[in-house]
Design a protein that fits this description.
alpha+beta, 3 domains, five-stranded antiparallel beta sheet, 20 strands, elongated, BatD, transmembrane, transmembrane helix
Amino acid sequence: MMRLVRRWSLLLAMALAVPLQAQEAPVLRVTAKAAAQGRTGATVQLQLEVMTSTWFTQPPRLPKLDLPGVLVTPPSGEAELVRANQDGQALSGLRYTYLLSAQSAGTIQIPALSVTAQLGPGGAPVTAESAPLSIVFGGDAQPGKVVGALTVTQAFALAPDPMVQGGRVTRSVTQRADGVQAMLLPPAPLADVPHFKRYPREPEVVTLTDGRGGFVGGQRIDRADYVAQEAGSFALPPLTLNWADEHSGAPQSKTLPGRQIEVAAAPQTAPPFSLADDLARLRHGLRWALPAWAMPALIGLAAAGLALWLGWTWWRRLARALIAAAGAGRTRWRASETRYWLAWRREARGTQPVLSDCYRWIRRSSGAVALRAALAPMAEGDRQLAENALRQVYGASGGHADWRARLAARSRAWRKAWRRRRPPRAALPAGLNPVDQGRNARMGRS
C-alpha cells in the first residue's frame, strides 16, 4: 500500500513540474546614423544609438573618432533617451551626437564604432559595434564663412549715458547659427575707431542644445570697449558679416548699422577733499624726512656690512696683523732715542733738581751709564758744565737753577755728536749682552 502511494506522488510531481528555462543573455546593439550628403563647411550630425534589452549599470564607454580633414566634436556627456522594438524585443538606451564639419569636398568614411557597456543584472561588460557608413561632402570650402542659417544682432551700452570724455561704449555682436558648431563662427570685425581707444574682450562661445542632449547650433558673442579720447561728435562704423546658405551655398551677408556718439567734455570738478591735508593729518606726529645723504649712507652701510660678513675670515686676519704691527710700533717707540730725548726735555723744564730722564737719554743715545763717562770725549767746557750740574744737583748747599737750562741747551750739540758716532748694536739681545748687564749694574751706582 505504501509503495503504491509513493509511486502516485512521484507521478503527480512530475506532471505538475514546469521545466526551468535558461535566462536569456542581455542584448547590446549599437547603431550609427548620419545624413548621406553634406555641404563643405556645414555641420553634419552623427547619431550613435546604444540600445539594450536590460539596463546600464555604468555609462557606456564611447569610442574616440578621428577623421582626417574633418573637425569632430565628441558628445558633451548629455544623451537623449530612446526606445524601440526590434524583432519583437523591447529595447531602450541612449543617443549620443557627434558633430562633423568637413574642410574640403569629398567622401568621408566612418569606420565601425565599438561601444562597451556594463549591463544588469550581473553587470557583465558587453561590447558591440556599429556598421560603417560614408558621408559625401560637396561644394567649395569658404574659409572664414559660416554655412547655415545665421542670425546676427548687436547692442550698444554707454557708460555714462550721456557720453563724456573718458567714458566707454561697449559694442556687442551676437552670432547664432542653427546646425553649425560654435567654434566655426568667425569673430566679428570690431576694429579700431578714430578718437577712441579700443579694448577687446574675450569672446563667449557656447554650444546650443535642446536641453536633452540634442544639438541645436552654436552662438558667439564678441564685445569691445571703446573709450572716448576727446570731446566731439563721432561715429562707430557699420559692420558686415558674410556666410553661405546651407542648402544652395549662395553667399549671404548682413550689415549692422553704426551709431553716432556725442561725447561731451569731461567736467572740471574740484576734489571733495584735499589730498595734501589728509596726508598731513595721517602723518601728524611723524613729520620727519630723511635728508638727501641718508639713502646713500644706508646703502653704503649695507654694502659694508655685506662685505664684512663675506670676508669675515680675511678681516680677522687683517685685524690681528694690524694689532701686532701696532704693538711692535709701540715697543719700538718706547725703546727709541727720540722718546728718551723728549722725556729729558720735559724734565729740564721742570723744577725738581733731578737728572733721571737725562741719564736714561744719555745711556740710550751714547751707551754710557754716567754723565762724566759720556762727556769724557767732549771738550773741557762740556766736562766743566757737567761737573757744575752735578754739584748743583747733589751738592749740600744747592745752587742756582740756571744750570738746568744751560745743560739742556748744550745737550743738543751732544745729541748731534753722539748720533754721528753711534756705536753699532750688540749682536746679542740686551738681556743677554754682558756689556749691557755691566752697564746696568754701574747705573745703579752713579
